[in-house]
Structure formats: structure tokens, C-alpha cells
Amino acid sequence: MIHYKARLTSLLLEPYQNAAARLLLPRAALPRPGQYLQAHDPADGEAAIATQLFAAGYEPADAEGELAQLAVAGPLPAGWQPGASLQLRGPLGRGFSLPHNARRLALAASGRHPARLLPLAVQAAEVALFCDEPLGELPAQIEVQPLSALASALTWADFVAVDIPPAHIEELPRLLGIHERAPKTLRGQALVTPPMPCGGLAQCGVCSLSTPHKPLLACGSGPVYDLASLLPNA
User: Fold this and answer.
1) Which end of the chain is more exposed for a tag (fewer CB within 10 A), N or C?
2) Are 41 and 101 in contact (CB under 8 A)?
């Protein structure tokens, strides 16, 4: 079990930030896209469980020696304020693993902001983002399209990364335009995040995830899954 200390340096309330806050934390604590940190403020006596934090935004971690600035996604506890000292555990979970030869990347967020996918954009030469949520400022090389256009991009993309709520997993075949068996050429992963209060410590079962093949505990086998494991008849 690895613990770190971090400082909440700023809250990002402006929509153009595509993130909720910035942390100053040890470089060793930096999560890969899709991994998460469990964070809590020791001064917050009302917090019953830790908060899950994911790297967010099109903003590579800014290193300062052994420390780094990291933009993270919300939601955050209402009582957190800039300057707060946080206790971290992690990085936890399975993150995204893009093939080394993936040049064309499709990012898709269903029913949520794509902030947790945006860190992947620096790993590909061409990036298309599919979502229906309002977005902040993005580099011009990221092409933005509605979520309904995702299926038509599967023949273009070398890899597909999806952020989808657990309750929407059954919608994956429709979003991908797959009516029967998933094509063998489909390469991709999905970030699925039910509540994970124990962070894998107790296997409490709260994060149990129903998939077409078998139930899974997101804290242990996820929260990033190969798309094939979430699609029926794959």
C-alpha cells in the first residue's frame, strides 16, 4: 500500500479548463490515464470515504523536480479549498494501454464529460473526440464530433477509448454500430467507474459490475476494460 501527501493548489471553475482542480504531488504518485488516486482531507471530519481522482484535461503533468502538477477530474467534495493538504493512496487500478503503433485515436464519452480521456490525446498523431457534453478549449488538432458519429470512425481509428457509466454498458453495441459479433479489427478499451470506496482493500462488492460475460469487481479488474470483455458475443 503506497501513500503520498499532496497539496490542492487550485480549483478550476472555468469551463475552458476541462478539469476540476490541480494538485502538487510526488511524481511517483502520478496516475496513468484511467488509473485513479484515493484522496481525502484529514481536516474534513465529515468525509466518510475517500474521493476518487483521475488525471484530466489535455495538460501533461508539469514536473518540478520530484514534484509534479496534475490536473484532475471532479466531482470534488464541497469543502475542499486551495491550499488543503491531502492524503493520497495509489495510483490504483488498471489504466489505458494504447498500442505503440496507434496513430489515429478515437475518444468517446457517453453521458459524461470526456475530461478523463483527454490525457490520452498526447499519445497519438491524429485524435477525434466524440461527445455531446460542452467542452472547454482544446488544441486544434483534436477534431470534435457528436457521439452519434462514433460508429463511422471505427474503420479510421487504430484504437478506441471510451468513458461510459456502468448503467450504459448495454448501450456499447449501439454506440459502436455493432449489431452482431464485434469485428476482430476492433481495438479499444473502456473506462467504467462504479463507486470504489475500498479501493481494492476489502473487496467489499460495492463496485460489482455486470457485464455480458460475468460480474466483475471494478477495483480489482478495472476500472479500464478491453472492449471485447464488455460486448456480447465477442
Assistant:
1) N
2) no
Condensed to tens digits (0 to 9), the pLDDT of residues 63-83 reads: 667 899 999 998 899 889 999
Beta-bridge mates of residue 11: 21
- Summarize pLDDT for 183-210 with one digit per residue, the tens: 666 899 999 998 887 777 767 778 788 7
pTM: 0.91
Q: How far apart are CA 100 and CA 62, in angstroms?
A: 23
User: Residue 90's closest CA among 32, 159, 46?
Assistant: 32
Architecture of the structural domain at 3-92: Beta Barrel (2.40)
- Classified by CATH at the fold level, domain 104-230 comes out as Rossmann fold (3.40.50)
CA 119, distance to chain mean position in Å, is 9
For residue 182, CA distances in Å to 31, 42, 103, 214 come to: 30, 47, 22, 18
Question: What CA–CA distance (Å, rounded) separates 169 from 138?
Answer: 27
pLDDT digits (tens, 9 = 90+) for 43-68: 887 777 889 999 998 776 676 678 99
CA 22/CA 38 separation, integer angstroms:
15
Listed residue (94, 102, 135, 93) closest to 121, CA to CA: 102
Among 39, 36, 82, which Cα is nearest to 56's? 36
The domain limits of the chain are 3-92, 104-230
Higher pLDDT, 173 or 202: 173
Contact 29, 90 (CB under 8 A): yes
